[in-house]
């Protein structure tokens, strides 16, 4: 700091010697020599990063995949229609558009704070008409216009605040970090919206498969009801068998009707995510459910570089760190240089002439001597904000680790459950086949068939519901990994 004070003293000495060239040279000298800032040296907050995820056993280590477009993680599901929906979302999603506008605001603020490092140039022209009374009550301006005069002014001024203590540079650094955080926020919301659309689409496709299952089941139950009615008319079966068959049919038909509003909800959600009104969008049913992808797992340390919400949290820490320097700089004087010159005349005709010129040049040093603790309070506030953003950053990282662990174990448990449920489904199908044969042979009553059919249908729907959960969890895991496992692809998305 002593070296900085010596520079200021020498600069002020030059500024008082009265020559414009020396003044300008001194100002430039001060500007070039001043290189100190009062913000702390930034370091990423310390974190305890695990060597691997606890639930990573059995998962493949992440490797870049050339078959997948950079950042287009949804292509792993191999559905061309889904790819088109995501492209429409990227173009027209209104939530992403809001964050994009916020990012443009942050960029404009960066340009504004960068301009404060340079001199500003102002041009002013004016015409003033003035008068002064003669002091005699017998005279008035209405009777005597000799006291009225016109003044024409034209002035060109230059002002420049010398950034001795790094206040302007720290402000620029803070705004740049905030802009980077805004960019990461935009990437995070885009990833969130993409993830939501993919989840809705996959669940809709599972509902399409459930609808086909129930339609086939309803058709089979209609045949069973007709058969029981025929047997009742022939005196072979009792009315209880007809009532049971009709109950079974109507219950399944009600389940089929219930799927319609569930599908409509997912379809409407997809429309809104693409920036469309639900009335203007329809998604035809498909016979294919996208296959469950094999998702390789990254290292926990790479998660910090990939997830946009973690990147945003760290950049907010950087901005808070720079703001500490801005608040500390308020303890020191502001030095600015100003020069102005122009022409002033009472006659428009002879306005711009050499005898009417004037100029002024000089430095200004401003220091707040007493503020009743305002600056100290501001420093305390910015330091507290920094501590807050550090805690938020660490919590965001912990939340990221927790999400990945949760989805890893969820998919692992779902995978184990899928094996058992598939075995249960195969056993239910075999039991149904045997029971129907026994009923046709007259060995058992129709109630036994109804019970087995209900069990088989329940197992069919359970397998589909579990597949729906596995697909949704896979999307959530990819999003928790930051939108894939290729680090370069994630950076390209941002």
UniProtKB/TrEMBL annotation:
It is a lipid-anchor. InterPro entries: MdtP/NodT-like, OMP_efflux. Residues 126-146 are annotated as: Disordered. Residues 136-146 have a biased composition (Low complexity). Keywords: Cell outer membrane, Coiled coil, Lipoprotein, Membrane, Palmitate, Transmembrane, Transmembrane beta strand. Residues 126-135 have a biased composition (Polar residues). It is found in: Cell outer membrane. Residues 82-109 form a coiled coil. Pfam families: OEP. Its main location: membrane. Belongs to the outer membrane factor (OMF) (TC 1.B.17) family. This is Efflux transporter outer membrane subunit. It comes from Pseudomonas muyukensis.
């Amino acid at each position: 700091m002593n070296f900085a004070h010596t520079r200021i003293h020498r600069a002020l000495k030059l500024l008082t010697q009265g020559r414009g060239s020396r003044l300008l040279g001194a100002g430039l000298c001060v500007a070039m020599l001043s290189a100190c800032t009062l913000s702390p040296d930034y370091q990423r907050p310390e974190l305890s990063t695990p060597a691997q995820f606890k639930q990573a056993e059995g998962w493949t280590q992440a490797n870049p995949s050339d078959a997948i477009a950079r950042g287009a993680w949804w292509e792993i599901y191999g559905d061309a229609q889904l790819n088109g929906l995501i492209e429409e979302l990227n173009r027209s999603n209104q939530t992403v558009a809001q964050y994009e506008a916020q990012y443009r605001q942050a960029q404009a603020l960066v340009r504004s704070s960068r301009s404060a490092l340079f001199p500003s140039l102002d041009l002013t022209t004016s015409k003033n008409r003035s008068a002064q009374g003669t002091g005699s009550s017998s005279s008035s301006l209405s009777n005597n216009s000799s006291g009225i005069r016109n003044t024409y002014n034209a002035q060109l001024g230059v002002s420049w605040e010398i950034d001795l203590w790094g206040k302007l540079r720290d402000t620029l650094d803070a705004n740049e970090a905030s802009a980077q955080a805004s960019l990461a926020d935009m990437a995070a919301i885009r990833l969130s919206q993409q993830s939501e659309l993919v989840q809705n689409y996959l669940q809709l496709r599972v509902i399409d498969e459930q609808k086909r299952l129930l339609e086939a089941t309803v058709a089979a139950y209609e045949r069973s009801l007709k058969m029981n009615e025929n047997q009742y008319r022939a005196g072979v079966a009792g009315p209880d068998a007809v009532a049971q068959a009709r109950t079974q049919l109507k219950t399944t038909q009600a389940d089929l009707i219930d799927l319609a509003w569930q599908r409509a909800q997912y379809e409407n959600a997809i429309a809104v995510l693409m920036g469309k009104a639900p009335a203007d969008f329809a998604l035809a049913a498909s016979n294919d459910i996208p296959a469950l992808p094999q998702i390789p797992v990254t290292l926990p340390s790479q998660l910090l570089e990939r997830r946009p919400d973690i990147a945003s949290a760290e950049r907010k820490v950087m901005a808070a760190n720079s703001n500490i320097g801005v608040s500390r700089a308020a303890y020191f004087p502001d030095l600015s240089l100003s020069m102005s010159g122009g022409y002033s005349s009472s006659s428009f005709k002879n306005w711009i002439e050499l005898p009417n010129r004037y100029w002024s040049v000089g430095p200004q040093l401003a220091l707040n001597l007493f503020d009743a603790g305002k600056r100290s309070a501001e420093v305390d506030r910015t330091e507290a904000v920094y501590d807050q953003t550090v805690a938020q950053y660490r919590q965001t990282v912990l939340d990221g680790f927790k999400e990945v662990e949760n989805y890893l174990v969820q998919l692992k448990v779902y995978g184990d459950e899928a094996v058992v449920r598939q075995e249960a489904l195969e056993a239910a199908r075999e039991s149904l086949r045997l029971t129907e044969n026994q009923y046709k042979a007259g060995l058992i009553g129709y109630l036994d068939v109804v019970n087995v059919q209900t069990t088989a249908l329940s197992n069919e729907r359970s397998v589909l519901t579990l597949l729906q959960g596995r697909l949704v969890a896979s999307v959530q895991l990819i999003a928790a990994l930051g939108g894939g496992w290729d680090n370069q692809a994630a950076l390209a998305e941002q």
